[in-house]
Amino acid sequence: MSQGSSPAKRNRKTFSGCWSCRERKIKCDEAKPTCRQCKKSRLECKGYGLRLQWIINKQLDAEFASVNNPRRNIALDAHTPVLSFDRVDDILTTLGHYDPRYMPTVQDNVHIYMECFGVFRDVDSRINASSLPIDSIPTSTEAQHTLDTANTTLSPAIAENTSISVFDHSSATLEDDRGSLINGSLNQSPSISWFGIDSHSQSLLKPLGSLAEEIETDAFGVYENGLDLASPSVPLGTTERFLIHYYSKRVVNLFCVIENGASPWKAIHLPKTLRAVGEITIEGKTSRICEALVRSCLSISAFCLSNDCRLRLQETEALRWEKLADEFRRQAINLLRNAMEKDFYPNKGVKYTDFLATTLSMITIDVMSGETDTCGIHLDGALRLINHGQTWEQQYTSKAETLHRMYFYLRAIFESTLPRHSRSRKLRTSCSTENDADSHDVFCHNIVAKCSISSLQSAEDQNTDPKIGSYESIYGVPYSLLFLLTKVIDLISKLYDESFDGRIPLHLMDECDELEHSIMDWPANTSFPSEPLNDYSSSAKIVYYHTAAFHEALIIYFAQHIRLVGHRFLQPHIRAVLDRMEVIEQIKVETNLIAAPLYWPAFIASSEAFDKALQNRFRKWYEHVMFYGIEALRTGFSVLEEVWEMGPQRADRVTSSWREVVERSGKILMLS
């Protein structure tokens, strides 16, 4: 280098530009949020954020190990064990039951930590979406953008960010003429003033915003073009994600009589559905039975949306959601059939609970859609599954036991209203374990009795909430009363076999007397109090009144089918059922609780109500509970209208009036 010459200018590389300029290998002025180079070229500026690449420790490549590489390499621990899906389910269930009031902070802002999951302490600066003022709720356009730009399928973040924005929370008014909502038969007063339920009913039917309408339109455009989502490995789109979100935020709350964070639909069906969605999204596939469960949940959610739209007199939207729900139901049934034929073998590593949960969800579809003719088919399928599962299931998990309790309840309610000509099998209520007899025990007493939690809490402990997973916490009725119902059903079946003419055969007389004593003495035998205590929680009160109403209805059920007692002698029991069912709805209004009641007691009691004042009270109760969107209730109410029109029973009757109507019309009731 000559003395007069200047030193060569050294070219220094920098790595602080935007990622777009780095990829194009041009100089970036680092303007934010968008650099001038990208603006000038009309390109998307990919920003300046740090990019992380996860690699295995022993597989470090020289290129990635270079210090000049702009990416930050974070090595994974090769010895870290991979958690099974079952373990993840257990952890998430445990964390879901966590209550910060009873556990101290472990460290920093962490309350509880299990494996790689933790629950964090609430921070004052964190915004709770449910507490936002109306003006600050995101618009439906923002919600649409959130769903469209999301790179995952219904992650917790999406569920939180869209929990309010998918609904229009502006003040909503219901149509004045609500009489047309129930088969055109409820033409009473134009508004509901009873119990102040007007506002509560409106809260159950918040109109869907433009997001739902856009999703709905897109969905039906896709289906009309012939896309069959029953094929495996098809990721869920915006419509399906919206339906699962609606299922998780609204639908699952309807099926328990109280607010129950660990209900089967929240602790079993929903987690299994979300896990299957995650497998489809990440791995591109899931099992046939899990795919069937996803489709069944989508169908339930779409039917619920259809029912809500119909109650708001939006018939066009209701029909479109109903069409989509029918398509999902068809897919679910086909997938379930194929899974049962090809996958239900222990050597294939299938999960018994996946099959049972999916089969029982088909009954939920029937109840939500109102098409209850196939309930018996699905219950028989669940029975065969349970009986077959006994041959290779050594010990049942807590989830399996909960599903067994669901089956027992649904079977008992279904069999109680089944027409006589539909009984093609011999019912049995004994708990014998002989293999040849088990197949005839449609109630599966030999399994259910072992997994049933205590039938009723002690009197001094009833001010606390019911135990998680018990019959009381799900249906508001203890196992002991359901067991008595199955015994009454079995006795009625025996009388039908004897061509019952109103006179009890001598060989059944003792059994009738013994069962009658068991029903009438049930409160004293179980220490059931005559009135709830003042310090009962709201949930405990709801369970108490459901139990009391069910017991009174069981007395009526026994009297109208076996003793053939006239309706005038049943008036005290009828009024007791109605009073308790009204109080239950009053508690829900006061606590802003959205949970559908048990319909069986109200139906049985109202079928013997021939006083006009009582009928009007029952009509108002039915009009109110229609807003829960359970379509199967319409069938039951249509039967009641025929019974009331017929008037009191004849002296030569051999069964109840409502059963005569059911057998004449061929209607199948499912009053769950």
TrEMBL record:
Protein keywords: Nucleus
Give the subcellular location: Nucleus
Matching InterPro entries: Fun_TF, Zn2-C6_fun-type_DNA-bd_sf, Zn2Cys6_DnaBD
Give the superkingdom in one word.
Eukaryota
Domain Zn(2)-C6 fungal-type intervals: 17-45
One Gene Ontology MF term: DNA-binding transcription factor activity, RNA polymerase II-specific
GO process terms (BP) = positive regulation of transcription by RNA polymerase II
Q: Which GO terms describe its cellular component?
A: nucleus
Give the protein's recorded name.
Zn(2)-C6 fungal-type domain-containing protein
Q: Which organism is it from?
A: Clonostachys solani
